[in-house]
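As a warm-up, study this chain.
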Amino acid sequence: MTSLALDSPAAVAVAEEASVSALLRCCVREIAGPRGQVRHEAPYVLLRLAGTRLRARAHGGLALRFTGRPEWLENGSWQPLSADLLVRLVEAELGEDEGNDEFAAQVAASRDALATLIAARREVAPPADPWLASEQALVLGHPFHPSPKARGGEGWLRYAPEAHASFPLRLLGVRDDVLAGAGDAGALDELGQAPPGYSLLPAHPWQLELLAADLAAPLADGRLIDLGDGSRMAVPTSSVRTVYEPLIDRCLKFSLDVRITNCVRKNSWYELAGAVELSRRLEPVFLGLASAFPGTRWLPEPGYRSAELGTRLLEGLGVIVRMSPWSVCRPGVTPLLSGALAAGRQGAGAVPGDVPGPADPPAVGPVPGPVPGGAPAVAAWPVADPVRWWRAYVERVAPPVLDAYLGHGVVLEPHLQNVLIGVDAEGLPVEAVFRDLEGTKLVAGRHDLSGLPGRVAEALTYDAASGWNRVVYCLVVNHLTEIAASLAGTGSTRRLWAVAREVLAEYAASRGWPRPLSDLLSGASLPAKANLSVRWARSADRSAGYVTVANPLAGP
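Now compare it with the structure written out below.
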């Protein structure tokens, strides 16, 4: 932990509480629940882990929000539960089959990183752009991940979106005989001036540090040249490795050879090619979705650029060009990250127990200052009419996702970091913007992929069952449950789910009640991604399985 965090006891305390809550949610969902060791006695959820009784005041339904500190029973007395004790209980419970000597360190590192981020963000003002402010608001990270702020590498803080970072990109010149790319990446040429015989390639400065040894030879022999820093400050978005470059109004998705939560975040060669291929194939799909569901938007990834210097540098220097949300939202509409809305009523810049500071806006969105297109700065919280707001939200997000799968054989990945909600001047949802083609897949057998390289085609497809599981998990379990919990506060989400059921039933009727939707609305159990299990097994994120959870859409 840096001295910045150590100098802030409040940040350390918030990080500890958040770490306990995240790991405890995982334990309820993935360990105690499937083993029949969870029961609900309002206002508590009670569970048993490694023979120890635990409890927490809970609300928010499936989102499992906690009020106050979770506790454990010691000699007949309830005591505050620490992250270290909870880790030991997890190790005792899961270690019977196979141990994991990395797990405790990962949880501790995530907690320390969170404390550092909380302390650091008090010192720097957020972006004036309400969309970018929302991108940098995911302070606590994934609520159902055992180490949501685990971050590899050194010097990460100066590139952290949660700390309101901004920095100039590094510009490289790639000699034209080793230039790699596909699609339309011409916007990159507007970032600066490359000498004759070279093309511009922006690079993430952190990635250049990580690749320094591999870059020495091509920089020495002229295949690459260092053109210095870009002229504008790029702003990292919620994924850390994707930044917004204001000079060209584009988002740029870089490789970072570090582990962030579950994965090393690099653009594999087949993902570079796949992004361009998917953008081409999805254009008519989204034209159809926008016609059927007005307000549906997406962010194409029309091209990528890299250097043909072996696989490591091809992937390591690869950058995917993505359109910005301001370029697709209509005038007067402000895009906000769904994950920031789900983070709670405290809004951008605040975390539970954190004292609001002058550097933070009072809520997600209402940040003073000019924004692209003259869009108004709007407040997303509080909501005057939660039911009306929620109905509009579900109508914007859910039907196009379901129709993409059922009508087009396209698996969108609408988790909270992949969806932006466009709100009007009243803060009412009027558009949904879907992004990040890495998780978007085509249903096998419904698309002709015969002309693609085998590895690209493989990476672009899911079988029908896997695709449906991914859609339902991301849309309902990861996304709508968290938005509903934040909207309801400590109150009941029951009325909100009744409204969501009405919206989905209306859509199902328009499609003739296909079997997947009939099962969903009849109360079939839902798949929830097992983040704790995949971390414990030290497996790749793509190997993550699911556990079943209760379905809040079940009818009376």
